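Running this now, will post back.
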Amino acid sequence: GLPGHPIVRAAKNYKDQIETVVRSRLFAQGVEDAAPLARRIVILLDGAILHGMVHHDPAYPIEAGCMALGMVRDAIKRSRASCSDCGPAIADEVRLFRESCYFGVEASSSS
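Update: finished.
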């Protein structure tokens, strides 16, 4: 697309906002490599959503959400090594992050 086109600018702003939210949540938990990890997660989810649309199969984004959650858990474990009293806060943040990644898919399937 044309870089200055209004739709391209709107899409870029939207994607930037998603990456910013993911990065902020990771930073809030003390993840040292939050910026590159947020970018990887956004790329993973975008690709999985595209594959899900092309194949008409929601398993792709759901699996990507699981992969992203694993990446987040690993990053939190690494940052947790320097935090002796942050267990409950990390558990809450992982739960919130998981819910935001699944966009309600998991919550609706558990009821």
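Confidence is low (pLDDT under 50) at residues 103-111. More later if anyone needs it.
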